[in-house]
Amino acid sequence: MRFTPALLERLDGSFHHLKTPLIDAPAAQRDPAVIDTVSSMLGDIRRRGLDAVLDHARTLDRYEGGDIELTAAQIASSGDRLAPDLRAAIELGSQRTKAFAAEQRDRLHDFETELVPGLFTGVRYVPVSRVGAYLPAGRFPLTASAFMTVGVAKAAGVPTVIACTPPQPDGGANDAVVYAAHLSGVDRVFVLGGVQALAAMAYGLLGDLPVDMLVGAGNAFVAEAKRQLFGTVAIDLLAGPSEVAVLSDDSADPEIVAADLLGQAEHGPNSPAALITTSHEHGAAVIAAVERQLLTLATEPIAGPAWRDYGTVTVAADRDTAVALMDDLAPEHLEVITDDDEWYHDNLRNYGSLFLGPWSTVAYSDKGMAGTNHVLPTAGGAKHSAGLSVSRFVKPLTYQRISREATPALAEAVQTISDSEGMAAHSATATMRLATYAQD
Protein backbone atom coordinates (compact mmCIF):
# COMPACT_ATOMS: atom_id res chain seq x y z
CA MET A 1 0.00 0.00 0.00
CA ARG A 2 1.39 3.37 -0.94
CA PHE A 3 0.06 6.85 -1.51
CA THR A 4 -0.28 8.33 -4.97
CA PRO A 5 2.36 11.04 -5.52
CA ALA A 6 -0.22 13.39 -7.01
CA LEU A 7 -2.35 13.16 -3.85
CA LEU A 8 0.64 13.74 -1.59
CA GLU A 9 1.52 16.82 -3.61
CA ARG A 10 -2.04 18.13 -3.32
CA LEU A 11 -2.14 17.49 0.43
CA ASP A 12 1.36 18.82 1.06
CA GLY A 13 1.61 20.32 4.53
CA SER A 14 -1.51 18.61 5.90
CA PHE A 15 0.14 15.38 7.00
CA HIS A 16 3.46 13.95 8.16
CA HIS A 17 4.91 10.46 8.50
CA LEU A 18 5.94 8.90 11.80
CA LYS A 19 7.00 5.66 10.16
CA THR A 20 7.78 4.99 6.52
CA PRO A 21 8.44 1.59 4.95
CA LEU A 22 11.97 0.37 4.37
CA ILE A 23 10.74 -1.17 1.14
CA ASP A 24 8.55 1.00 -1.07
CA ALA A 25 5.87 -1.60 -1.80
CA PRO A 26 5.37 -5.35 -1.50
CA ALA A 27 7.22 -7.36 -4.10
CA ALA A 28 5.12 -7.70 -7.23
CA GLN A 29 3.29 -10.98 -7.60
CA ARG A 30 4.40 -10.98 -11.26
CA ASP A 31 7.90 -12.29 -10.68
CA PRO A 32 9.33 -13.30 -14.09
CA ALA A 33 10.46 -16.63 -12.67
CA VAL A 34 6.94 -17.30 -11.37
CA ILE A 35 5.41 -16.33 -14.72
CA ASP A 36 7.74 -18.67 -16.62
CA THR A 37 7.19 -21.57 -14.22
CA VAL A 38 3.40 -21.23 -14.36
CA SER A 39 3.38 -20.88 -18.15
CA SER A 40 5.49 -24.02 -18.51
CA MET A 41 3.30 -26.00 -16.14
CA LEU A 42 0.04 -24.94 -17.78
CA GLY A 43 1.42 -25.77 -21.22
CA ASP A 44 2.50 -29.20 -20.02
CA ILE A 45 -0.89 -29.89 -18.44
CA ARG A 46 -2.74 -28.75 -21.59
CA ARG A 47 -0.65 -31.19 -23.64
CA ARG A 48 -0.58 -34.23 -21.35
CA GLY A 49 -3.66 -33.81 -19.21
CA LEU A 50 -4.05 -35.68 -15.94
CA ASP A 51 -0.70 -37.46 -16.35
CA ALA A 52 1.03 -34.10 -16.15
CA VAL A 53 -1.12 -33.07 -13.18
CA LEU A 54 -0.04 -36.18 -11.29
CA ASP A 55 3.61 -35.71 -12.26
CA HIS A 56 3.58 -32.19 -10.84
CA ALA A 57 1.75 -33.48 -7.77
CA ARG A 58 4.56 -35.99 -7.20
CA THR A 59 7.16 -33.26 -7.47
CA LEU A 60 5.39 -30.51 -5.54
CA ASP A 61 2.73 -32.19 -3.36
CA ARG A 62 4.63 -35.34 -2.30
CA TYR A 63 1.90 -37.38 -4.02
CA GLU A 64 2.80 -41.08 -3.88
CA GLY A 65 0.01 -42.66 -5.87
CA GLY A 66 -3.55 -43.58 -5.08
CA ASP A 67 -6.74 -41.62 -5.51
CA ILE A 68 -6.37 -37.85 -5.20
CA GLU A 69 -10.10 -37.49 -4.55
CA LEU A 70 -11.52 -37.86 -1.07
CA THR A 71 -14.51 -40.16 -0.79
CA ALA A 72 -17.83 -38.87 0.47
CA ALA A 73 -17.25 -40.80 3.69
CA GLN A 74 -13.82 -39.22 4.19
CA ILE A 75 -15.27 -35.76 3.68
CA ALA A 76 -18.19 -36.36 6.02
CA SER A 77 -16.01 -37.84 8.77
CA SER A 78 -13.40 -35.05 8.71
CA GLY A 79 -15.02 -33.28 11.64
CA ASP A 80 -14.81 -36.39 13.80
CA ARG A 81 -11.04 -35.98 14.01
CA LEU A 82 -11.17 -32.40 15.27
CA ALA A 83 -11.09 -31.12 18.82
CA PRO A 84 -14.66 -30.35 19.95
CA ASP A 85 -14.01 -26.62 20.40
CA LEU A 86 -12.46 -26.32 16.92
CA ARG A 87 -15.35 -28.25 15.39
CA ALA A 88 -17.88 -26.00 17.12
CA ALA A 89 -16.04 -22.85 15.98
CA ILE A 90 -15.99 -24.07 12.36
CA GLU A 91 -19.71 -24.85 12.54
CA LEU A 92 -20.41 -21.35 13.88
CA GLY A 93 -18.39 -19.68 11.13
CA SER A 94 -20.10 -21.75 8.45
CA GLN A 95 -23.54 -20.83 9.77
CA ARG A 96 -22.83 -17.12 9.92
CA THR A 97 -21.22 -16.91 6.48
CA LYS A 98 -24.15 -18.81 4.96
CA ALA A 99 -26.61 -16.53 6.71
CA PHE A 100 -24.99 -13.34 5.42
CA ALA A 101 -24.69 -14.76 1.90
CA ALA A 102 -28.35 -15.80 1.96
CA GLU A 103 -29.35 -12.27 2.93
CA GLN A 104 -27.34 -10.92 -0.02
CA ARG A 105 -28.91 -13.42 -2.42
CA ASP A 106 -32.43 -12.54 -1.28
CA ARG A 107 -31.79 -8.95 -2.34
CA LEU A 108 -30.87 -9.85 -5.92
CA HIS A 109 -34.31 -9.84 -7.49
CA ASP A 110 -35.37 -10.79 -10.97
CA PHE A 111 -37.45 -8.03 -12.45
CA GLU A 112 -39.31 -6.96 -15.56
CA THR A 113 -40.41 -3.44 -16.42
CA GLU A 114 -42.29 -1.83 -19.29
CA LEU A 115 -40.00 1.08 -20.25
CA VAL A 116 -42.52 2.44 -22.73
CA PRO A 117 -45.78 0.89 -23.93
CA GLY A 118 -44.95 -2.39 -25.62
CA LEU A 119 -41.22 -2.45 -24.69
CA PHE A 120 -40.64 -4.93 -21.89
CA THR A 121 -37.15 -5.41 -20.46
CA GLY A 122 -35.93 -7.46 -17.53
CA VAL A 123 -33.19 -9.30 -15.69
CA ARG A 124 -32.88 -12.89 -14.50
CA TYR A 125 -30.16 -13.76 -12.00
CA VAL A 126 -28.81 -17.16 -13.05
CA PRO A 127 -25.94 -18.87 -11.19
CA VAL A 128 -22.91 -20.18 -13.04
CA SER A 129 -22.96 -23.95 -13.43
CA ARG A 130 -19.61 -25.11 -12.03
CA VAL A 131 -17.14 -23.49 -9.63
CA GLY A 132 -13.69 -24.66 -8.60
CA ALA A 133 -12.48 -23.49 -5.18
CA TYR A 134 -8.85 -23.52 -4.08
CA LEU A 135 -8.55 -24.00 -0.32
CA PRO A 136 -5.07 -23.02 0.96
CA ALA A 137 -3.47 -25.17 3.63
CA GLY A 138 0.18 -24.19 3.61
CA ARG A 139 2.00 -22.25 6.34
CA PHE A 140 -1.37 -21.31 7.84
CA PRO A 141 -4.34 -23.47 6.81
CA LEU A 142 -7.08 -20.94 6.04
CA THR A 143 -9.93 -22.87 7.62
CA ALA A 144 -12.58 -20.26 6.78
CA SER A 145 -11.68 -20.09 3.09
CA ALA A 146 -14.30 -22.72 2.26
CA PHE A 147 -17.01 -20.63 3.91
CA MET A 148 -16.20 -17.71 1.63
CA THR A 149 -15.86 -19.66 -1.62
CA VAL A 150 -17.71 -22.98 -1.51
CA GLY A 151 -20.42 -21.80 0.90
CA VAL A 152 -21.13 -18.51 -0.82
CA ALA A 153 -21.22 -20.18 -4.24
CA LYS A 154 -23.78 -22.65 -2.91
CA ALA A 155 -25.81 -19.81 -1.37
CA ALA A 156 -25.85 -18.24 -4.83
CA GLY A 157 -27.33 -21.45 -6.24
CA VAL A 158 -24.30 -22.90 -8.02
CA PRO A 159 -25.17 -26.57 -8.70
CA THR A 160 -21.63 -27.99 -8.67
CA VAL A 161 -18.71 -26.80 -6.54
CA ILE A 162 -15.49 -28.81 -6.40
CA ALA A 163 -12.49 -27.98 -4.25
CA CYS A 164 -8.77 -28.69 -4.23
CA THR A 165 -6.57 -28.38 -1.16
CA PRO A 166 -2.84 -29.15 -0.89
CA PRO A 167 -1.73 -32.18 1.12
CA GLN A 168 -0.25 -31.97 4.59
CA PRO A 169 3.15 -33.53 5.43
CA ASP A 170 1.46 -36.91 5.95
CA GLY A 171 0.04 -36.77 2.42
CA GLY A 172 -3.57 -36.32 3.55
CA ALA A 173 -5.84 -33.30 3.59
CA ASN A 174 -6.20 -30.89 6.49
CA ASP A 175 -9.26 -32.12 8.38
CA ALA A 176 -10.36 -28.66 9.51
CA VAL A 177 -10.25 -27.34 5.93
CA VAL A 178 -12.17 -30.37 4.64
CA TYR A 179 -14.77 -30.13 7.40
CA ALA A 180 -15.32 -26.46 6.59
CA ALA A 181 -15.81 -27.44 2.94
CA HIS A 182 -18.21 -30.21 3.95
CA LEU A 183 -20.35 -27.85 6.00
CA SER A 184 -20.28 -25.38 3.11
CA GLY A 185 -21.84 -27.93 0.76
CA VAL A 186 -18.88 -28.97 -1.38
CA ASP A 187 -19.62 -31.66 -3.96
CA ARG A 188 -16.12 -33.12 -4.41
CA VAL A 189 -12.73 -32.58 -2.75
CA PHE A 190 -9.32 -33.36 -4.23
CA VAL A 191 -6.00 -33.43 -2.37
CA LEU A 192 -4.11 -31.42 -4.93
CA GLY A 193 -2.19 -28.18 -4.61
CA GLY A 194 -1.01 -25.16 -6.50
CA VAL A 195 -0.91 -24.59 -10.24
CA GLN A 196 -1.73 -28.19 -11.06
CA ALA A 197 -4.93 -28.00 -8.98
CA LEU A 198 -6.17 -24.87 -10.74
CA ALA A 199 -5.28 -26.24 -14.16
CA ALA A 200 -6.99 -29.56 -13.47
CA MET A 201 -10.22 -27.80 -12.50
CA ALA A 202 -10.06 -25.32 -15.38
CA TYR A 203 -9.32 -27.98 -18.02
CA GLY A 204 -11.83 -30.53 -16.72
CA LEU A 205 -9.28 -33.20 -15.79
CA LEU A 206 -10.89 -34.36 -12.54
CA GLY A 207 -13.63 -36.54 -13.95
CA ASP A 208 -16.00 -33.64 -14.46
CA LEU A 209 -16.58 -30.89 -16.99
CA PRO A 210 -14.28 -27.86 -16.76
CA VAL A 211 -15.34 -25.36 -14.14
CA ASP A 212 -16.72 -22.01 -15.24
CA MET A 213 -15.03 -20.07 -12.46
CA LEU A 214 -12.01 -20.41 -10.16
CA VAL A 215 -12.03 -18.82 -6.70
CA GLY A 216 -9.85 -18.80 -3.63
CA ALA A 217 -6.61 -17.35 -2.30
CA GLY A 218 -3.12 -18.74 -2.67
CA ASN A 219 0.55 -17.92 -3.07
CA ALA A 220 2.23 -16.12 -5.97
CA PHE A 221 2.06 -19.24 -8.16
CA VAL A 222 -1.67 -19.64 -7.52
CA ALA A 223 -2.26 -15.95 -8.28
CA GLU A 224 -0.28 -16.20 -11.52
CA ALA A 225 -2.10 -19.38 -12.56
CA LYS A 226 -5.43 -17.63 -12.07
CA ARG A 227 -4.16 -14.69 -14.11
CA GLN A 228 -3.10 -16.94 -16.98
CA LEU A 229 -6.26 -19.06 -16.83
CA PHE A 230 -8.53 -16.02 -16.88
CA GLY A 231 -10.46 -16.15 -20.12
CA THR A 232 -10.49 -19.92 -20.09
CA VAL A 233 -12.47 -19.50 -16.89
CA ALA A 234 -13.69 -16.59 -14.82
CA ILE A 235 -11.87 -15.77 -11.58
CA ASP A 236 -12.87 -14.01 -8.38
CA LEU A 237 -9.98 -11.52 -8.23
CA LEU A 238 -6.20 -11.34 -8.31
CA ALA A 239 -5.13 -10.92 -4.71
CA GLY A 240 -1.67 -9.95 -3.51
CA PRO A 241 -0.31 -9.99 0.03
CA SER A 242 -2.93 -9.43 2.73
CA GLU A 243 -3.28 -5.83 3.91
CA VAL A 244 -4.66 -3.98 6.91
CA ALA A 245 -5.13 -0.29 7.58
CA VAL A 246 -6.41 1.40 10.71
CA LEU A 247 -7.85 4.90 10.91
CA SER A 248 -7.85 5.94 14.55
CA ASP A 249 -7.61 8.97 16.81
CA ASP A 250 -6.60 9.55 20.40
CA SER A 251 -9.85 7.97 21.63
CA ALA A 252 -8.50 4.57 20.54
CA ASP A 253 -6.43 2.24 22.71
CA PRO A 254 -2.91 2.07 21.19
CA GLU A 255 -2.52 -1.52 22.36
CA ILE A 256 -5.65 -2.62 20.48
CA VAL A 257 -4.60 -0.76 17.34
CA ALA A 258 -1.13 -2.31 17.51
CA ALA A 259 -2.57 -5.80 17.98
CA ASP A 260 -4.83 -5.37 14.97
CA LEU A 261 -1.97 -4.17 12.77
CA LEU A 262 0.10 -7.20 13.74
CA GLY A 263 -2.91 -9.49 13.33
CA GLN A 264 -2.71 -9.05 9.56
CA ALA A 265 1.05 -8.55 9.34
CA GLU A 266 1.49 -12.16 10.41
CA HIS A 267 -0.08 -13.34 7.14
CA GLY A 268 3.32 -12.95 5.53
CA PRO A 269 6.58 -11.01 5.69
CA ASN A 270 5.39 -8.78 2.83
CA SER A 271 1.94 -7.99 4.27
CA PRO A 272 1.55 -4.19 4.63
CA ALA A 273 0.05 -2.62 7.74
CA ALA A 274 -0.82 1.09 7.75
CA LEU A 275 -2.04 3.48 10.41
CA ILE A 276 -3.52 6.88 9.59
CA THR A 277 -4.33 8.98 12.62
CA THR A 278 -5.24 12.56 13.46
CA SER A 279 -3.09 12.46 16.60
CA HIS A 280 0.72 12.56 16.64
CA GLU A 281 0.76 11.27 20.22
CA HIS A 282 -1.53 8.37 19.38
CA GLY A 283 0.59 7.41 16.37
CA ALA A 284 3.76 7.40 18.46
CA ALA A 285 2.02 5.32 21.14
CA VAL A 286 0.92 2.74 18.56
CA ILE A 287 4.48 2.41 17.22
CA ALA A 288 5.74 1.80 20.75
CA ALA A 289 2.97 -0.74 21.40
CA VAL A 290 3.80 -2.66 18.21
CA GLU A 291 7.44 -2.92 19.22
CA ARG A 292 6.47 -4.17 22.70
CA GLN A 293 4.04 -6.76 21.39
CA LEU A 294 6.54 -8.08 18.85
CA LEU A 295 8.87 -9.03 21.71
CA THR A 296 6.51 -11.80 22.83
CA LEU A 297 4.63 -12.61 19.61
CA ALA A 298 5.07 -16.21 18.48
CA THR A 299 4.84 -15.18 14.84
CA GLU A 300 7.37 -12.34 15.19
CA PRO A 301 9.60 -13.88 12.48
CA ILE A 302 6.76 -13.15 10.03
CA ALA A 303 4.99 -10.12 11.49
CA GLY A 304 8.22 -8.38 12.50
CA PRO A 305 9.69 -8.11 8.99
CA ALA A 306 6.26 -7.17 7.59
CA TRP A 307 5.98 -4.27 10.04
CA ARG A 308 9.61 -3.22 9.65
CA ASP A 309 9.67 -3.33 5.86
CA TYR A 310 6.10 -2.36 4.92
CA GLY A 311 4.50 -0.75 7.98
CA THR A 312 3.53 2.93 7.83
CA VAL A 313 2.20 5.50 10.29
CA THR A 314 0.90 8.80 8.93
CA VAL A 315 -0.52 11.72 10.91
CA ALA A 316 -3.24 13.74 9.15
CA ALA A 317 -3.99 17.35 10.08
CA ASP A 318 -7.75 16.70 10.15
CA ARG A 319 -10.32 14.06 9.41
CA ASP A 320 -10.90 15.18 5.82
CA THR A 321 -7.22 14.68 5.11
CA ALA A 322 -7.33 11.30 6.85
CA VAL A 323 -10.20 10.21 4.59
CA ALA A 324 -8.40 11.45 1.46
CA LEU A 325 -5.26 9.52 2.41
CA MET A 326 -7.14 6.35 3.29
CA ASP A 327 -9.24 6.41 0.13
CA ASP A 328 -5.98 6.71 -1.81
CA LEU A 329 -4.60 3.59 -0.10
CA ALA A 330 -7.87 1.70 -0.73
CA PRO A 331 -6.87 -1.09 1.68
CA GLU A 332 -8.14 -4.64 1.69
CA HIS A 333 -9.19 -4.44 5.35
CA LEU A 334 -9.95 -1.11 7.03
CA GLU A 335 -10.61 -0.59 10.73
CA VAL A 336 -12.03 2.69 12.01
CA ILE A 337 -11.63 3.38 15.73
CA THR A 338 -12.46 7.02 16.44
CA ASP A 339 -14.83 9.21 18.42
CA ASP A 340 -17.03 9.63 15.33
CA ASP A 341 -17.01 6.30 13.47
CA GLU A 342 -20.26 7.01 11.65
CA TRP A 343 -18.85 10.16 10.05
CA TYR A 344 -15.98 8.13 8.64
CA HIS A 345 -18.38 5.40 7.53
CA ASP A 346 -20.38 8.00 5.61
CA ASN A 347 -17.31 9.54 3.96
CA LEU A 348 -14.91 6.67 3.21
CA ARG A 349 -15.31 5.15 -0.26
CA ASN A 350 -12.43 2.80 -1.02
CA TYR A 351 -11.90 -0.39 0.99
CA GLY A 352 -12.41 -4.11 0.67
CA SER A 353 -14.27 -4.51 3.97
CA LEU A 354 -14.84 -2.05 6.81
CA PHE A 355 -14.63 -2.75 10.55
CA LEU A 356 -16.22 -0.05 12.69
CA GLY A 357 -15.48 0.64 16.33
CA PRO A 358 -13.15 -0.77 19.00
CA TRP A 359 -15.10 -4.02 19.29
CA SER A 360 -14.61 -4.92 15.61
CA THR A 361 -11.47 -6.60 14.31
CA VAL A 362 -10.43 -8.08 10.97
CA ALA A 363 -9.88 -11.50 12.52
CA TYR A 364 -13.62 -11.86 13.14
CA SER A 365 -14.17 -11.77 9.37
CA ASP A 366 -11.00 -13.71 8.53
CA LYS A 367 -12.27 -16.68 10.53
CA GLY A 368 -15.86 -16.42 9.28
CA MET A 369 -17.46 -15.27 12.51
CA ALA A 370 -18.72 -11.92 11.21
CA GLY A 371 -20.41 -13.53 8.20
CA THR A 372 -18.84 -11.20 5.62
CA ASN A 373 -16.49 -12.43 2.91
CA HIS A 374 -12.73 -12.24 3.37
CA VAL A 375 -11.84 -12.68 -0.32
CA LEU A 376 -11.12 -9.01 -0.99
CA PRO A 377 -9.23 -6.75 -3.42
CA THR A 378 -5.66 -5.78 -2.56
CA ALA A 379 -3.02 -3.40 -3.94
CA GLY A 380 -5.48 -0.55 -4.42
CA GLY A 381 -8.04 -2.73 -6.19
CA ALA A 382 -10.74 -1.49 -3.83
CA LYS A 383 -10.79 1.75 -5.83
CA HIS A 384 -12.67 -0.08 -8.56
CA SER A 385 -13.69 -3.52 -7.30
CA ALA A 386 -15.49 -5.16 -4.40
CA GLY A 387 -14.82 -8.43 -2.66
CA LEU A 388 -16.30 -11.83 -3.41
CA SER A 389 -20.03 -12.22 -2.76
CA VAL A 390 -23.03 -14.12 -4.04
CA SER A 391 -23.40 -11.52 -6.79
CA ARG A 392 -20.13 -12.74 -8.32
CA PHE A 393 -21.54 -16.23 -8.78
CA VAL A 394 -24.72 -15.16 -10.58
CA LYS A 395 -25.10 -13.68 -14.03
CA PRO A 396 -27.63 -10.84 -14.41
CA LEU A 397 -29.07 -11.94 -17.74
CA THR A 398 -31.08 -9.26 -19.50
CA TYR A 399 -33.91 -9.85 -21.94
CA GLN A 400 -36.38 -7.82 -23.97
CA ARG A 401 -39.77 -8.49 -25.44
CA ILE A 402 -41.10 -6.01 -28.01
CA SER A 403 -44.72 -5.66 -29.07
CA ARG A 404 -45.96 -4.80 -32.57
CA GLU A 405 -47.24 -1.48 -31.29
CA ALA A 406 -43.81 -0.44 -29.97
CA THR A 407 -42.06 -1.29 -33.25
CA PRO A 408 -42.31 1.98 -35.26
CA ALA A 409 -40.50 4.19 -32.74
CA LEU A 410 -37.77 1.62 -32.17
CA ALA A 411 -37.29 0.61 -35.79
CA GLU A 412 -37.20 4.11 -37.21
CA ALA A 413 -34.53 5.22 -34.72
CA VAL A 414 -32.45 2.09 -35.33
CA GLN A 415 -32.74 2.60 -39.09
CA THR A 416 -31.54 6.18 -38.79
CA ILE A 417 -28.52 5.30 -36.64
CA SER A 418 -27.62 2.21 -38.71
CA ASP A 419 -27.82 4.13 -41.99
CA SER A 420 -25.57 6.86 -40.56
CA GLU A 421 -23.03 4.19 -39.62
CA GLY A 422 -23.25 2.41 -42.97
CA MET A 423 -24.45 -0.82 -41.32
CA ALA A 424 -26.97 -1.96 -43.90
CA ALA A 425 -27.80 -5.32 -42.36
CA HIS A 426 -28.61 -3.71 -39.03
CA SER A 427 -30.85 -1.24 -40.82
CA ALA A 428 -32.62 -4.05 -42.66
CA THR A 429 -33.58 -5.82 -39.45
CA ALA A 430 -35.51 -2.69 -38.55
CA THR A 431 -36.90 -1.73 -41.98
CA MET A 432 -38.26 -5.24 -42.63
CA ARG A 433 -40.26 -5.00 -39.44
CA LEU A 434 -41.47 -1.53 -40.40
CA ALA A 435 -42.64 -2.90 -43.73
CA THR A 436 -44.52 -5.71 -42.03
CA TYR A 437 -46.09 -3.25 -39.63
CA ALA A 438 -47.25 -1.02 -42.51
CA GLN A 439 -48.86 -3.95 -44.38
CA ASP A 440 -51.00 -5.09 -41.49
Provide an overview of this structure.
The structure is a single chain. This protein is of the alpha/beta class and 440 residues long. Helices cover 44% and strands 17% of the residues. It contains 17 helices and 14 strands. A six-stranded mixed sheet has the order 1-11-10-9-12-13, with helices on both faces. Strands 6-5-4-7-8 form a five-stranded parallel sheet, with helices on both faces. Helix 8 (194-202) runs parallel beside helix 9 and helix 10 crosses helix 11 (280-294). The chain starts with a helix and ends with a helix.
Question: Sheet bearing the most strands, described?
Answer: 6 strands, mixed
* Terminal residue distance: 66 Å
Please state how the strands of the largest beta sheet are arranged side by side: 1-11-10-9-12-13
Number of helices: 17
Low-confidence stretches: none
Based on CA atoms alone, the radius of gyration comes out at 26 Å
Shape: globular
Any chance you could write out the topology, listing elements then pairs?
Blueprint (H helix, E strand, L loop, with lengths): L4 H6 L4 E5 L12 H17 L1 H11 L11 H5 L7 H23 L4 E6 L2 E9 L2 E5 L10 H12 L3 E6 L9 H10 L3 E4 L2 H9 L10 E3 L4 H10 L4 E2 L8 E5 L5 H12 L7 E5 L2 H15 L5 H11 L1 E5 L2 H11 L3 E5 L3 H7 L5 E4 L5 H5 L27 E9 L4 H15 L2 H16 L1
Parallel strand pairs: 4-5, 4-7, 5-6, 7-8, 9-10, 9-12, 10-11, 12-13
Antiparallel strand pairs: 1-11, 2-3, 3-14
Helix pairs in contact: 2-3, 2-8, 2-9, 3-8, 5-6, 5-7, 6-7, 8-9, 10-11, 10-12, 16-17
